[in-house]
Amino acid sequence: MRQATVYIDQAALQYNFNRVKQLAPTAKIVSMVKANAYGHGIKDCLAALSSTDAFGVACLEEALEIRNLGYAQPITLIEGAFSENEMTIAINNNIDVIVHHQLQVKWLLTHKAAYQAKNLKVWVKLNSGMNRLGFKFPEIINIIHTLKAEGFTCVLTMHFANADADNHPLNEQQKNQFLQVKEVCAPIMGSCCNSAAIFKWPELNFDFVRPGIMLYGASPFADQSVHELDLQPVMTFTAEIIALNHIQAGENVGYGSTFSAEQATDIAIVSVGYGDGYPRAFIQPNYVAINGHPTRIIGRVAMDMIAIDVTDLNATLGTVVELWGKDRLVDDVAEANGTIGYELLCRLSSRPVRR
Ligand SMILES: Cc1ncc(COP(=O)(O)O)c(C=O)c1O
User: Taking CB atoms and a 6 Å cutoff, what residues make up the pocket around ligand 1?
Assistant: First the structure.
């Protein structure tokens, strides 16, 4: 049997969840489990996150999956309902919506009685400069006043465009607008922190924090590793050696013959490739780990196989190779491939076996 395997460490997920609690002790935690829990598999992750206060997802289908698995915590639909019909399904399933455009407000007002009968909160999204979703200042003030006057319980929410960057001028603008709206609309609950903001701005934790990537043990920052942040990688992605070759100086490996050995080299072929979601396009040398030792990938990544240098590593058929996990951090693989850990985690294919 082909051995490309994804292991999910539920204890690591719980450890990271407790890190959020340490960093934001007074806020409720909305665990972001969109995109199949950032590619980790929603079912296993929910089991490890059962003490979370709420879940955050990107669409109704993801929210309904959580309900179907039997979890009763509040769920926030972070892009809101995409139609009036979705609004009614959300209400029937006790799902809080975000509103970020006028039509959503209209649907909400149309279904006000049902919404309020379920004690659901309305998350009102401020567009403070990211310019994806939300009402701008001062339009949002009128919307919040209207919703409050209609008896809704509101949460003012926004998302930072550059929470991972030091000294980006938009951060101050976004913070100031959020604080201003919060003050004008007081009393109102607030939520603006993703993982990076949870680490950087404890004063902005307010009522709900929305950690995503940190729960899964990857770093929200390009210049700080998960070890420095005291987080534990949740996903370990491995495969096994299925062939061993000894090549002489001048021999090539793989498609395009891009690798040419400078000296005699022991190479191993590992049963993983871009068909599993392993990235092909590395722009810097890329490594895997064998028993904690980094060893380089040579030649091109193919659909089902990669070649690695196992000179002096005592590798045999069946030796387990860590593609990312605790020894080879997903963030480092991402950097070598010109992307971010989020993407690699989310875009694994359904092909690796899940454990
Ligand atoms: C609205 C919102 N909140 C929170 C998060 C979590 O962000 P992170 O994974 O960086 O913690 C996301 C992720 O994209 C988001 O879109």
Answer: 32, 78, 159, 194-196, 210-214, 220
